Amino acid sequence: MYDNNPTLEGLKTMDEARQGSVLFKEHWQTSDAPGLKRFYIESYGCQMNFSDSEIVASILNEVGYVPTRNMEQSDLILINTCSIREKAEETVRKRLRVFENIKKERPGTMVGILGCMAERLKKQWLEEEKLVDLVVGPDAYRDLPNLIGAAEDGNRMVNVILSREETYADISPVRLNTNGITAFISIMRGCDNMCSFCVVPFTRGRERSRDPFSVVAEAADLFAQNYREVTLLGQNVDSYKWENPDTGEKTDFADLLAMVAQVSPLLRVRFSTSHPKDMDDKVLHTMAQHHNICKYIHLPVQSGNSRVLELMNRTYDRAWYMNRIEAIRQIIPDCAVSSDIIAGFCTETEEEHQDTLSMIEWANYSMSYMFFYSERPGTLAARKYADDIPEEVKKRRLNEIIRLQTAVSLRHNQADIGKTFEVLIEGDSRKSDQDFAGRNSQNKMVVFPKREGLRPGDYAQVRIKDATSATLLGELV
Ligand code: 5AD
Ligand code: SF4
Predict the structure, then answer these.
(1) What is the pTM of this model?
(2) What residues of the chain score a pLDDT lower than 50?
(3) Which of 340, 356, 370, 373 to mutate for ligand 1's pocket (most ligand atoms within 8 Å of CB)?
């Protein structure tokens, strides 16, 4: 899932690694069937955005739209956008130019913008540049059939209203571009944290949690379809909370994890993303109690320095974060931890940057997603602080971070040589169809030679013989 090529922009993130991937479900009705319209969708950004595209596909399917890989032959081109960094927005702009040309060649093709860029750029794209026919924000996808209908009549349509309630709980996502083994389940939407660098609270609105029974039902349904791993998604899963309106009974994230883990011992459960301020010991004990809850926590630190963390409004300091890592080590000794790191945040000094480096070393992250700071319009930081670290300095600091993390990842992986792991086989390895690839509980990609009788979706015991900074290489035992 992750592509660990260090670049100046940072290691490719789960979002960027998947950028530009075209979502398509193989066994849908063919798009040549008469009377059906075709849509083409590209998704950018985080896993949540990819998960949203599966909800969009389900809503479109209901009104007779089928997906196509071929944008030239589609009636509707959709792009699900991300605003997290400037670069993500630039990529979308380039794609819009390509779609504009298709529209010229095939008048009548509609183009729609979905997702996080919708609110901010609706005026410019819809009214000024007239690049698109539809602009639909992340909480307005149920309105797509109406908006498409009106756009077919030649109107330019927009709905970017954010909701306090929408969780799409009742919509059964159409799994797109799937390996048939692993799937994502959104358990909450929005974010109330207000980290000063982050645009998400503005693009995705207030935090709301989904009914836990609908989450469990979705997991059970996936298991029945032979999926073997679900990842529970939210901007801050540790603040998941739900109260049963009939009984008043409360469900927190640890409760939800346990409920999903009980669907089947053969169904692995992962989750992302955890927030250091909210990740409590109850979650860690629940992880320790269930073999099928994977021993892996993505716990973004962002900076290793307490003053910078304060400016970032992360609401924890270095000592608090270290205490959380120590709790993980004590309660789940075999747990891997990964991080998100931002280099060159406003006013960051060289000494403060060194604190981030020493945190990477101390926390012993299995891997990190690393970025340099990119000011986002409307955020707290954009309003309050000057973006005063020169670009060369940001990039140099980021490179130092990447270099250190790559070395720490290699060390982390080499420490696994000689160990045996349970690996969920996801499919052929990227390099050879003679090898399978899958993940261990710690979320490390493991590659090993195939054996007759084993298939994707099976669990295999694999002894590790060798390691790179990104992959473990092993053999079946
Ligand atoms: N600049 C750089 N990186 C950012 N992130 C979020 N906002 C910004 C920004 N303005 C990073 C954070 C977050 C991850 C998803 O993206 O590290 O955890
Ligand atoms: Fe996901 Fe944030 Fe990008 Fe929106 S802005 S797609 S929530 S990463």
Answers:
(1) 0.92
(2) 1-31
(3) 340
